Amino acid sequence: MDLTRSLSDVVALLAGLVAVLAPFFWAGDVNAANLPLLILGALLVVSALWAILGAGGAGSWVTAAFGALLFVSPWAFNFDGHSSAAWTAWIAGAVTVVVGLLTTLQARTAAPTRA
Question: Collapsing DSSP states into helix, strand and coil, what is residue 82?
């Protein structure tokens, strides 16, 4: 198992867990943010666990795509005015996108070329 890939999957897993658990710790009630953060965070968790367990299928680009959706969710679901919810989505999404894209680029450059 590639250590860089597994480390990036663990980071994506943690970002997904933060997105899933964050609505339960907010002081204010932000109903518009609860469902998008729960669903997109759960998708991140499932994608990262799928990759960590080595089940194949979902790659780092899928994790990066879920992170991108999480990043734009405050604007798409109109909770960008609620700072705690929006910053949770922006930070968790950005971290996931960066880690996912870096892992994808590393895997692409490390892949053997066919003659």
Answer: coil
Compute CA distances 41 → 19, 55, 68, 108, whole Å. Answer: 5, 20, 12, 26
Cα–Cα distance for residue pair 102/15, rounded to 1 Å? 16
Cα–Cα distances in angstroms (integers) from residue 109 to residues 94, 103, 106, in the given order:
22, 10, 5
Q: Which residues contact 110 (CB under 8 A, 6 or more apart)?
A: none
Low-confidence ranges of the chain (pLDDT < 70): 1-5, 26-30, 55-58, 107-108, 110-115
Integer Cα distance of 95 and 85 in angstroms: 16
Segments in the chain forming alpha helices (H)? 3-21, 31-52, 60-76, 83-110
The pLDDT value recorded for residue 32 is 75
Tell me the pTM. Answer: 0.82
